[in-house]
Design goal:
The chain has one helix at residues 101-104, and strands at residues 3-7, 10-13, 18-25, 31-37, 44-50, 56-57, 65-69, 73-78, 87-94, 112-113, 117-122. The protein is built from 1 helix and 11 strands.
């Protein structure tokens, strides 16, 4: 059984940085991803980390966020943060090795979710 536990959220000012972590257990292969959901908005894919393949990023975070890690821990390094990055951030796992961006950032491709960690960026 796969379990995911996020940490590292917090409050920062515009332009600041944060690194989120996701500790995994029971995950061996497939894709790990980061998603976020702001109040009143739909959940959106932020970045995906498929096993042995290139990562995928949402256009809104390219060149600012970096996803990395291994099968035990997933990270999301966030720089140049903006108020619109404020959201609950979730780690998720998929059975599938999601290489194509159109699938890698779809939340219905993921079957296990963490409890989330809050990120707040103030202007």
């Amino acid at each position: 059984q796969v379990r995911l536990v996020e940490s590292g959220g917090g409050s920062v000012q515009t332009g600041g940085s944060l690194t989120l972590s996701c500790a995994t257990s029971g995950y061996t292969y497939g894709t790990l991803g980061w998603f976020r959901q702001a109040p009143g908005k739909e959940r959106e894919g932020v970045a995906a980390f498929p096993s042995d393949a290139r990562s995928t990023y949402a256009d809104s975070v390219k060149d600012r966020f970096t996803i990395s890690g291994d099968k035990d821990t997933l990270y999301l390094q966030m720089t140049s943060l903006k108020p619109e990055d404020s959201a609950m951030y979730y780690c998720a796992a998929s059975h599938f090795r999601l290489i194509r961006p159109v699938y890698a950032l779809r939340d219905d491709e993921y079957y296990v979710w963490g409890q989330g960690t809050q990120v707040t960026v103030s202007s």
